[in-house]
Amino acid sequence: MTSPISGDTVAQYLRDNPSFFDVHAELLASVTVPHPHGGRAVSLVERQVDVLREKHKVLEMRLADLIRIGRENDAIGERLQRWTRDLLRERDLRRLPAIVTDGLAVGFSVPQVALRLWRLPEVHQSLACAAEVPATIHTRIDDLRQPYCGLNAEVPEAAWLAAGGSQTRSLALLPMRVGAAPESFGLLVLGSPDPARFQASMGTAYLERIAETASAALSRLLA
Question: Which domain holds residue 77?
């Protein structure tokens, strides 16, 4: 008695013989398979058309998503350029902290922004951003080598934000440094009532650029 041929054997045979349906073209119309979205049977040709149509839809969705991301990145790049330009054009050093925070709040639609700077010379000690910060925070920020993003799990620096951080669900911490210096001279805190605004899994490329630009501008206050 002949053993039945398994489906895997048939599939492998068709893979190994791609010209099979060229020789037996009549099978494409005569062999039917169940329709994936209904009980009726369709030919192999019609089923293949359905498969190609579904693949086309997936590719269209991916392309639309890439276009959306590209447009969003372009918009962020334009806002970053305008903010950088404003910082470069400002000659009054004491106005730089406000340009940094206001630019992020308005230009980047960040609901909550706070800035603290330390190691400032006496001439700038009266600035609001020069409010005293515990040395323990200085040390912890020195160890922060890239922006921190995540939920506000009782992060002490959240208290610098509006309402003492009581409405802050997620935040980002951006250390201020002079170039690649190991020690920090300040911290920029971005907060949001939306827990998904600053996620631990999000990319930080733009936040790093914001931190570098703000650091470069604000480091002028250290002289």
Answer: 38-89
